[in-house]
Design brief:
Layout: E1 21-24, E2 29-32, E3 35-36, H1 37-43, H2 46-55, H3 61-72, H4 81-86, H5 94-108, H6 118-144, H7 157-166, H8 177-189, H9 197-206, H10 212-224, H11 231-244, H12 249-257, H13 278-294, H14 299-312, H15 315-319, H16 326-336, H17 344-365
Antiparallel strand pairs: 1-2, 2-3
Helix pairs in contact: 1-8, 2-17, 3-6, 5-6, 5-10, 6-7, 6-17, 8-13, 8-17, 9-10, 9-17, 10-17, 11-14, 11-16, 13-16
The structure holds carboxymethyl coenzyme *A.
The site of carboxymethyl coenzyme *A has 15 residues, from loops.
Length: 389
């Protein structure tokens, strides 16, 4: 019944048409809705870029203010959600808790969204953006045993992230504007990356007309893996290993080049970007700014700088076009900001949320059919039933 093409990992199969993100790995180009990532990272804010990704055009000042106000209508999370988070052990990985809590939001918002109704779609989107940030930070507060914070509607989205994470019950709290600015950039750079594993998952789950919360929850699970969003955690673990070993970066460079040694320099090289990762260039600048301004003195960061400088002039790395990728620098910034290693992938999820929403919305609006790949069966031919009992 028809001819089936086998393409494991969908390396050569397009799953959809999309107007959201353009990516050219050979030339190192990344654009959201036609705007270069360089321009957006430098000139726009994360809420502005979220609006652009989801609705297709940059918002006017009035549209952006309205978007912000509409998000703020939904920043309270049902108190009963706290019973759910209380059921997890303190040692639970934040990504598992985030996926579960996102899915649990469905229980408190059981009405299916009518995607034909623009107002209902808009409200569901604002609700998701508001509640996701709050529950993402709750996963950290839980591991620390801190009381859970609420969104402060007098502050902006990224500033709220810092408050939700780090504000303690007593004393004043003001997020450092340099940190807020660096995080804003990081979130923008993670905003969308066309049909990557988690985004394809969101579209696939949504194609069965499962709701937005359920689809996003599945995206969080897909992002969790070390081959995807988990790579930023691996970079920091490698730097810690080098530090524990005495900090000899030359030794680890030699290991990375030794074909008999499986060790690789984590955070170098990329499957799609073969010249450079445009996001890494922008992040590197932000990382330097953050480290200099905060005057951070951390042996791990010194090791990262030494490795980066050595690899950029090393014949092995240069000839193979192995440049630092986005994960190399993002982990360094997160660490400098005091964000624990197991929260790194949650940071990625917060940045990727508008991309997931945009892709889900596009998929539903384009009335895409349910995702249902075929297979090539390699099992037994028909066998006669004979009990083995
Ligand atoms: N350290 C040392 N050698 C490397 C590295 C590295 N990080 N990356 C690639 N090479 C070598 C590899 O051994 C091969 O050498 P040769 O030609 O002599 O056999 C050559 O470079 C080409 O490598 P490849 O494995 O064929 O390239 P790939 O496109 O299949 O792999 C990669 C890309 C990202 C998986 C790989 O570069 C890697 O493992 N990097 C480290 C892990 C990492 O940082 N991952 C995060 C990627 S960005 C996150 C995302 O966007 O999802």
């Amino acid at each position: 019944t028809g001819f089936i093409t086998l393409d494991p990992g969908y390396k050569n199969s397009g799953s959809c048409t999309s107007e959201i993100t353009f990516l050219d790995g050979e030339l190192g180009i990344l654009r959201y809705r036609g705007y270069s990532i360089e321009d957006l990272a430098e000139k726009a804010s994360f809420p502005e870029v979220s609006y652009l990704l989801i609705f297709g055009e940059l918002p006017t000042a009035q549209q952006l203010a309205q978007f912000d106000a509409d998000i703020k209508k939904h920043t309270l999370v049902n108190e009963e959600m706290k019973n759910i988070i209380d059921g997890f052990p303190k040692t639970a990985h934040p990504m598992g808790v985030l996926s579960a809590l996102t899915s649990a939001l469905t229980a408190f918002n059981p009405k299916a969204v009518n995607v034909e109704n623009e107002k209902e779609m808009y409200e569901a989107i604002c609700k998701t953006i508001a509640k996701f940030l709050v529950i993402a930070t709750w996963t950290y507060r839980k591991t620390m045993g801190y009381p859970l914070n609420y969104y402060d509607n007098t502050k902006g989205y990224v500033e709220n992230f810092m408050q939700l994470m780090f504000r303690l019950p007593t004393g004043p709290y003001a997020a450092n504007p340099i940190i807020v600015n660096a995080l804003d950039k990081l979130f923008i750079l993670h905003g969308d990356h066309e049909q990557n594993c988690s985004t394809s998952t969101v579209r696939m789950v949504g194609s069965s007309h499962a709701g937005l919360f359920a689809s996003i929850s599945a995206g969080v699970s897909a992002l969790w893996g070390p081959l995807h969003g988990g790579a930023n955690q691996a970079v920091l673990e490698m730097l810690e290993e080098i530090n524990k070993d005495g900090g000899d970066t030359d030794k680890f460079m030699a290991k990375a080049k030794d074909k008999n040694d499986p060790f690789r320099l984590m955070g170098f090289g990329h499957r799609v970007y073969k010249n450079f990762d445009p996001r890494a260039r922008i992040i590197k600048k932000a990382a330097d700014e953050v480290l200099n301004t905060l005057g951070v003195d951390d042996p791990i960061l010194a090791i990262a700088k030494k490795l980066e400088a050595a690899a950029l002039v090393d014949e092995y790395f240069v000839s193979r076009k192995l440049y630092p990728n986005v994960d190399f620098y993002s982990g360094i910034i997160y660490r400098a900001l005091g964000i624990p290693t197991d929260m790194f992938t949650v940071m990625f999820a917060i940045g990727r949320l508008p991309g997931w929403i945009a892709q889900w919305k596009e998929m539903r609006e384009n009335k895409e059919p349910i995702g249902r790949p075929r297979q090539i069966y390699t099992g037994h031919p028909l066998r006669e039933f004979k009990s083995n009992k």
